[in-house]
Specification:
Length: 236
């Protein structure tokens, strides 16, 4: 049984048919990437998984349990965290306060081991723990968004465009961290414009075009696929 499964999911924004019967799986321990052009439905897919949007048809299951019966915050309790596009940090709160907000869903309040893990992953956040989050650099804000999501101790973390707006050297650091998070036991579903970077760390990938999955394969095969090379990897 897959950790996450979408079966024939149709999601709408009003009358706009955004997802047109998509089906996909993420197995425990994987990094799976979802690539596609702007407007293809990648963020809509993540919002449907997290309960922000409800599918009109089809279902989303986590470890075999249908998520449609739960509200968005209850899906967090089930073990799904999201790092939203544009980071979505609390700009007026400190780094420490943002991390505390990430743990709001937890019944246990022993955050010390989690903070130690996070400060090992992101030493820069440790140095800036009392700094107001809105004054951090773009790369530091992305680190904070990822760290905040990890504070919920998710089984599955959804990442929406983590490299957006970052310098190339920082993009590499962020992707190295995603690999490390995965090695430590968190399953990752990654939405990313930088398809080459995404495919370099993922085991499998899905290609989404105008709300439909048009291709699914191992990351290695997708990198060699002519359509993917032309449309998403900038190769002629």
């Amino acid at each position: 049984m897959a950790m996450l499964e979408l079966e024939n999911v149709h999601t709408y924004y009003g009358n706009i048919h955004a997802l047109k019967g998509i089906s996909m799986k993420v197995e425990k321990g994987e990094i799976v990437t979802l690539i596609g052009a702007n407007g293809a439905g990648k963020t809509t897919t993540l919002r449907t998984i997290t309960g922000i949007l409800r599918p009109r048809e089809g279902k989303v299951t986590l470890n075999g349990e249908d998520l449609s019966q739960f509200k968005a915050h209850e899906i967090v309790y089930k073990g799904v965290s999201m790092v939203p596009e544009g980071r979505g940090i609390f700009g007026r709160l400190t780094v420490s306060e943002n991390l505390d907000m990430g743990a709001y869903s937890r019944k246990d309040k022993n955050f010390a081991p989690d903070l130690e893990r996070i400060f090992n992953l992101f030493p820069r956040l440790k140095e800036r723990r009392s700094q107001v989050a809105g004054t951090l650099s773009g790369g530091e804000q992305q680190m904070l968004a990822m760290a905040r999501a990890l504070m919920a101790r998710p089984q599955l973390i959804l990442m929406d465009e983590p490299s957006m707006g970052l310098a190339p050297v920082l993009v590499e650091a962020i992707f190295d961290t995603i690999v490390q998070i995965n090695k430590e036991g968190t399953t990752v579903l990654l939405v990313e414009q930088n398809a080459l970077m995404a495919l370099s760390i993922a085991s499998r990938g899905y290609v989404l075009q105008t709300g439909t999955i048009v291709l699914h394969d191992t990351a290695e095969n997708l990198k060699k696929n002519e359509m993917v090379q032309k449309a998403y990897l900038g190769m002629e």
